[in-house]
Amino acid sequence: MMDEDIQLRTMMGLMLSGEGYAVSHAKDETAAMSLHRLDPFDLVIIELDMDGTDAFKTIMELRRHHDPTRFIATTKMSLSLGSLCRKMAKQIGAHSVLPKPFEPEELLAAVREALE
């Protein structure tokens, strides 16, 4: 899980752990890649609009190292820019894109669907 909001990242991690999922947290692409190399992820939840991070590059890099890494993208961008990012994420294989704020149930449903 890669999101610059530590509170949201923690809340999502606790919720997913409570559902029985193993969760790793990364604050940036360097940490995510290090964790992924040690134990490849089945699913990545990544914020598209993190400061100083090219999320699309990170997604492509993660997918290159383990197939098939699935991912769910989140975005807090404005309506027009967010729409473009959602389309781009779908084009490179995002299982789903959740606009922030989203409900915990939405995230759980997206995770369950992506891992089926």
Question: Could you characterize the architecture of this molecule?
Answer:
This protein starts with 5 loop residues before the first helix and ends with a helix. α3 (55-65) links the parallel β1 (43-47) and β2 (70-75). α2 packs parallel to α3 (55-65). Helices cover 51% and strands 13% of the residues. It has a three-stranded parallel β-sheet with strand order 1-2-3, sandwiched between helices. The chain is globular and about 35 Å long. It has one domain (6-115): Response regulator (Rossmann fold, 3-Layer(aba) Sandwich), CATH 3.40.50. The chain is an alpha/beta fold and 116 residues long.
Total domains? 1
The CATH topology comes to: Rossmann fold
Oligomeric category:
single chain
Helix content: 40-55%
Number of helices: 5
Please identify the structural class as seen in this structure: alpha/beta
Give me the side-by-side strand order of the main sheet: 1-2-3
Low-confidence stretches: none
Beta-strand content estimate: 5-15%
Please state the second-level CATH architecture.
3-Layer(aba) Sandwich
Q: Give me the count of strands.
A: 3
Distance between the termini: 18 Å
Mean pLDDT: 84
> Which shape, going by the Cα principal axes?
globular
CATH hierarchy, class = Alpha Beta
The major β-sheet equals: 3 strands, parallel
Radius of gyration: 13 Å
Element-level helix/strand string: HHEHEHEH
CATH homologous superfamily assignment: Response regulator
